[in-house]
Write a structure and sequence with these properties.
Layout: H1 2-13, E1 20-22, E2 29-31, H2 38-48, H3 54-68, H4 74-85, H5 92-105
Antiparallel strand pairs: 1-2
Helix pairs in contact: 2-3, 4-5
Length: 111
């Protein structure tokens, strides 16, 4: 009997999660979590890099556009952002220079 219970519990744990979630006792359906939207990427880069000049906002917009068109890997942008964000007092110049260099290594020209 115990073996059957364990097997049944293991089988239940492999059932995929539904696309929506229902809150207990409320009957309210919530959509499943979605990946971060590209507008959020733009906002995150602008705020996290402390962009302040028009050229900086233009560069960030270009990077987000290239990510949307799959010309520039999102993971490369995110990892460069995380690295540059630690640079003080303004991380933006570090981000721009590093991203241009990293993109060039994979054959992508940003400027």
């Amino acid at each position: 009997m115990r073996i059957l219970t364990v097997v049944a519990l293991l089988a239940v744990s492999f059932i995929p999660a539904p696309a929506t979630a229902v809150l207990p006792l409320s009957g309210v359906e919530l959509p499943a979590a979605q990946p971060m939207a590209q507008a959020d990427l733009k906002d995150e880069l602008e705020a996290g890099l402390k962009a302040r000049r028009p050229q900086e906002f233009q560069f960030i917009a270009k990077v987000v556009d290239m990510v949307n068109r799959k010309q520039l890997p999102l993971e490369m942008v995110r990892s460069t952002f995380i690295w540059a964000r630690k640079k003080k007092p303004y991380p933006y110049p570090f981000f721009e220079r590093a991203l241009i260099q990293r993109a060039a290594k994979i054959g992508v020209r940003i400027n």
